[in-house]
Write a structure and sequence with these properties.
Elements (H helix, E strand, L loop, with lengths): L1 E6 L4 H12 L4 E8 L3 H11 L3 E4 L5 H7 L6 E4 L1 H9 L4 E4 L7 H8 L4 E4 L2 H18 L2 E4 L2 H9 L8 E8 L9 H4 L4 H5 L8 H9 L1 H13 L7 E5 L5 E7 L4 E5 L5 H9 L13 H4 L14 H11 L3 H17 L7 H12 L9 H21 L1
Helix pairs in contact: 2-3, 4-5, 5-6, 6-11, 6-15, 10-15, 11-14, 15-16, 15-17, 16-17
């Protein structure tokens, strides 16, 4: 029996992970489950999987969690420090799926234990890539990518020498707004932006997919995970979301990972690594799909990938600024505060105005930059 902690158990990645665990109950022991709040749902899951501890990031939700777990013997805790302590618990694998920079400190805590981390929190590598990868090396930790694209690259590299890689291609669905004109994009509603044609995801990541910021963030992630150089990582729009990414080698052979548009597949790859496990999802039916198509990204209508590549090239604190500004911009759009096209414009505005250090030495440095960029983005919104 292997042990697991799930950081972000009530989100879409957490739901998919627990669906897998239900299929393999005899193989897993659940140590910790966490959520931002969702106390009732978290308590139900903790009871179902007999977790040792359940933690809410929002400490105001702790009384509700304690009441829901009364008499079970399951420990209940709340607050940032409790999240970090839960992440430090020794387990065989930690599934890190807390959304946004709130997941940075827990991910780092898991890394510092030298364990295996299945990483679904892309902001961790975007904002703190250099700091985090240094910590992975220093503590002998193992990072397994959960994002479908990075997991596809990881699988396509299996058994190969990364020095033989000529090009890594990240595929992008293009999201639900790919065919809209620049004028139509100005009138997009939050409901339109979150209606992804292929994937069932949370609101924030769905908007990121619609703006292509999701792919820009993944570009920065790939730069840290697969050290081939930024010039050897490209993005290709692939609306069917069947080829999740591919690796071309110097002999011009290309290895791609194909699969259904279901996060259960990359999660199963991480949980079973280096082996395989049964996954409860529909198999890929290429005959039913019929055809696969590919397009170059349009960085005029969707400038997010251009901004992300430039941020990655600059390095230092710039990716952290980009990520923080995007989180504020997406929240403002979902709240009806700004139009869809203002998301990328606000991020670019923050990047142009911010004074940022050229290097980050610690997680505290990253969080300081993140906080400053958020304040600047908010100030720009308030003065618009």
């Amino acid at each position: 029996m292997r042990s697991i902690s799930i950081l972000g158990a009530t989100g879409s990645v957490g739901d998919s992970t627990l669906k897998l665990l239900r299929q393999h109950r005899d193989a897993w022991r659940v140590e910790a489950l966490t959520a931002q709040c969702s106390a009732t749902k978290l308590a139900q899951l903790a009871r179902e999987f007999d977790a040792r501890i359940a933690v809410v990031g929002d400490e105001s939700c702790l009384p509700e969690l304690r009441e829901a777990l009364a008499g079970t013997g399951i420990e209940a805790a709340g607050g940032r420090a409790a999240l970090i302590e839960a992440a430090r618990r020794p387990v065989d694998i930690t599934l890190a799926a807390i959304v946004g920079c709130a997941g940075l400190a827990p991910v780092m805590a898991a890394i510092e234990q030298g364990g295996t981390i299945a990483l679904a929190n892309k902001e961790a590598l975007v904002s703190a890539g250099e700091v985090m990868m240094q910590a992975v090396e220093r503590h002998g930790a193992t990072l397994l990518p959960v994002d479908s694209e990075h997991n596809a690259i990881f699988q396509s590299l299996a058994g190969s020498d990364i020095a033989d890689v000529r090009m890594i291609t990240l595929t992008a669905s293009g999201g639900p707004l790919r065919l809209l004109s620049a004028e139509e994009l100005q009138r997009v509603t939050p409901d339109q932006a979150v209606a992804h044609p292929n994937w069932d995801m949370g609101a924030k990541i769905s908007v990121d997919s619609a703006t292509m910021f999701n792919k820009g963030l993944e570009l920065i992630e790939a730069y840290h995970l697969f050290p081939v150089g930024l010039d050897r990582i490209r993005i290709l729009v692939h609306p069917q979301s069947v080829i999740h990414s591919m690796v071309e080698y110097r002999d011009h052979s290309t290895i791609a990972q194909l699969g259904p548009s279901d996060m259960i597949v990359p999660i199963a790859s991480c949980l079973a690594w280096p082996r395989r496990m049964e996954a409860p999802c529909e198999p890929l039916d290429l005959a039913a799909i019929g055809e696969l198509s590919f397009f170059a990204p349009d960085e005029e209508r969707f400038p997010a990938t251009r901004l992300a590549r430039a941020a990655c090239e600059e390095g230092g604190a710039t990716p952290a600024v980009l990520n923080a500004a995007n989180e504020i911009a997406v929240a403002a759009f979902l709240a009806g505060q700004i139009p869809f096209t203002r998301i990328a414009a606000l991020v670019e505005d923050v990047l142009e105005r911010s004074n940022r250090p050229q290097a980050l030495a610690s997680l505290e440095d990253v969080l300081t930059v993140d906080s400053s960029a958020r304040r600047q983005a908010q100030a720009i919104l308030e003065n618009a």
